[in-house]
Amino acid sequence: MLFNGNVRDIIAKRYSCRSFRDEPVCAEDLRALNDCVAECAKGPFGGDVRLAIIAAETSDTAMLKGLGTYGFIKNPQGFIIGAVKDSGMALEDFGYVMETFILYATGLGIGTCWLGGTFTRSSFAQRISLENNEVLPAVAAFGYPADRRRMLDSVVRWKAGSNYRKAWSELFFSTSLETPLRQSDSGIWAEPLEMLRRAPSASNKQPWRVVMRGDGEFDFYLMRTKGYRERNKTMLAILDLQRVDMGIAMSHFEYTAREIGLDGGFTLRNPAVAALPGGCEYIVTWRTKI
Ligand SMILES: Cc1cc2nc3c(=O)[nH]c(=O)nc-3n(C[C@H](O)[C@H](O)[C@H](O)COP(=O)(O)O)c2cc1C
After folding, report:
1. What is residue 70's three-state secondary structure?
2. Which of 37, 54, 122, 257 is most buried, most CB within 10 Å of its CB?
């Protein structure tokens, strides 16, 4: 994937933008976004993610507003909708592909905001002609960022603790999940891991855990937030968004590694960990090409 600029700068620039300028996205940028949609459709587990860019309709703002403060989006100029066949690692594939689009858009100077909870699924499902065996885990609003953030945006950010990221010692480990990895001991891997740490996640829960095993191998685990899936399922019928978060984190890690010349890819292995902590599950391994 070719971004419009250095992917580390793009990751640093990205944030959840909830106030957009009341100005349509220009034809040239829309063309570039559509080209990106065509290019980035396959996830790391091989799933095809069907993305569609749609222009916002007047009713969307009212619909988003009606759904409460968290996620109130002003002047969205469009939405990127994604659908994926409901199988195996579909949600991770979805997160990876959608985040690729988001990073690409950020490189063009376009603001975005993931929406996984606060949107009406049926109205978007209709617009992408969702098929029976497909799910629509999330959408993203986009447009040019407004010059000033609204007071409300700051409140939403504060509520979700959006500027906060967990410390390295909580997220990254050496050899096993018992031994925290110090940034100073991570060598050439400091940047891919730091760029992963800056990834967006649903309600900013940051459920990713990564174990560096030596020889350029990294096991990725999902540490579920207690009660999050169950709570959200009953309230909003949301899909398992923390698996989407895993796909997002994988994309940040992989794109950064590649940019600094560390080629490799994701693969599944049997990590044979005797007892994982409660709520923790193995997702995938990154293996560097030697
Ligand atoms: C899968 C997913 C779903 C999200 N759903 C929403 C949402 O419904 N409403 C909203 O305002 N923000 C949503 N967010 C944005 C997060 O709150 C945000 O990424 C997090 O607080 C970190 O802030 P940042 O993106 O500005 O770095 C979602 C993010 C992800 C990754």
Report:
1. coil
2. 257
Domain(s) labelled CATH 3.40.109.30 in the chain stretch across 168-288
Q: How many angstroms separate the Cα of 74 from the Cα of each of 20, 77, 82, 211, 239?
A: 6, 9, 21, 39, 25
- The DSSP H or E segment spanning 208 is strand 208-214
Threshold 0.70, pTM exceeds: yes
Q: List the structure tokens of 49.
A: 């993610």
- Taking CB atoms and a 6 Å cutoff, what residues make up the pocket around ligand 1? 15-16, 70-71, 113-118, 138, 156, 160, 162, 200-204, 241, 244-245, 248
Question: Could you read off the pLDDT of 93-131 as tens digits, one per residue?
Answer: 999 999 999 999 999 999 999 998 756 677 788 888 999
CATH number for the 168-288 domain, one of 3.40.50.1000, 3.40.109.30, 3.10.450.50, 2.60.200.40? 3.40.109.30
d(CA 48, CA 38): 11
Q: Where does 7-156 sit in CATH, by number?
A: 3.40.109.10
d(CA 214, CA 231): 38
> For 262-282, what is each residue's pLDDT tens digit?
999 999 988 777 788 888 999
Could you give the CA distance from residue 169 to residue 113 in angstroms, rounded to a whole number? 28
Residues of the chain with CATH 3.40.109.10: 7-156
Low-confidence ranges of the chain (pLDDT < 70): 58-71, 118-120, 230-238
Site to substitute for ligand 1 among 157, 165, 201, most atoms within 8 A of C-beta: 201
